[in-house]
Amino acid sequence: MGRLDGRVIIVTGGGQGIGRAFALGFAKEGAKVAIADINGPAAESVAAEIGEAGGDALAVVADVSSEESTKAMAATVVGHWGRIDGLMNNAAMFQRPQITDGPIEEIPVEEWDRVMAVNLKGPFLCCRAVIGQMKEQMYGKIVNISSGTVFSGRSILHYVSSKGGVTAFTRVLAKQTGDWNITVNSIAPGLTASDPERDQSAYEGRVSARSIPRVQEPDDLVGAGVFLLSSESDFMSGQTMVVDGGAVMH
Amino acid sequence: MASARRVWTIAVGRLDDRVIIVTGGAAGIGRAYITGFVAEGAKVVVADIDGEGAAKAAAEVVAGGGEALAVTVDVSDVGQTEAMAKATLDRFGRIDGLVNNAAIAIRVKHVNAPVEELPVEEWDRVIAVNLRGPFLCCRAVLPHMKSRGYGKIINIASGTFFKGTPFISNYVASKGGVIGLTRTLAREAGKSGITVNCIAPGLTASETEEMPASHYEARVPDRAIKRVEVPEDLVGAAIFFMSKDSDFMTGQTIIIDGGVAIN
Questions:
Q1: ipTM confidence score
Q2: Which of A142, B17, B154, B185 has its CA at a distance of 20 to 30 angstroms from the CA of residue A39?
């Protein structure tokens, strides 16, 4: 009775945090889930967790900024299950100390390039790798993870710029792929408590700006992810859903 | 025995035991919401200015094994919206959801004219139903939802707000107003566990008997997904916004139009 029964779905960055919550949620709805992560052991661990719960999952090591790696990811999934129904572009660089928060003149140029390579070129390459298969199937569901910061402008410069690119990319790709019944939409989360090792006051600092005044958890995003990967959203494309407790309104 | 059966039901429906009011629920898109909600286990209130239509829709739900109440309501009338909320509470004891779907649609008995030629009464009539209506219906159910600390409200806007469709300024302004109402109410009611979101459909073939097919087909070439929009295209989003799956999403508007307008 799952809403994603039989669907083969790739979740990039599925080895931890929000990606892990998506992967577990999709498996619960009956999907076969490919956990694609640059961190192999993390991907294995989530795949094992799904397997133990009676689901069907596959761990794939993938660097989304590498064309070769994304092509291998798609080939592995097709080789294993024979199809790809959904792609969740969740892998991203998003917080300190991975990236520098500061004025434009203090952001290292190489770091700008690296953030764009993972956060924007990554979804481009992953979509490029799976779109042929989806077109062949005449059906596909792509979900990109953007960010509420695109609408508030209140976060790290290169991170927000990459996520603005993701929203724009979503819009154009939707127009390009509708003839094959492929929908492309984005979810824009607020700051989510996905890292238990991070200083929790960072998460609590966002609470007062929200309509629903509490910390955002990874599970808060799963319903929207399931909706956009299920047949229930088959006539919705090119859109961005903000799920942030009502901080920004879009 | 009853409890064993109940466990099974809970595993199936995403809206089990939720009491949901759908205004304009007797026909068209509203009727499709009713069908979808009932299939997910909700108890529904078919609220419509067409009392006979509401009674017929409710009877169909009951005949299918569901629970439904028909209420005759003009959403632009304060007393009638309050009576609608009271009738729901009298019958079911709670209100979990409200879909503000009733509206004067652009195609039915509607004057198309540039702003300077649009009769002022036409402006007032459309705003009264399409914008004042949702305001009054929200006003009628909010005290109850706040007292329970939970509620789900959906307002229906329109893709025309994003496109600025000409010659229907009253309709487009009313739907833009609905988005404004959605945002403000979301901030006001969030701390009470109430979410308020908005669905903006494209032109939907919901009254096929009143319009020729060509009217709907004319919109198809602009879409990423090139077909006529039907009421069922909107049901999944409505279930999502009525279910706990959307409990951390509020104040937002999603366009469902096959990918024409963008938000």
A1: 0.91
A2: A142
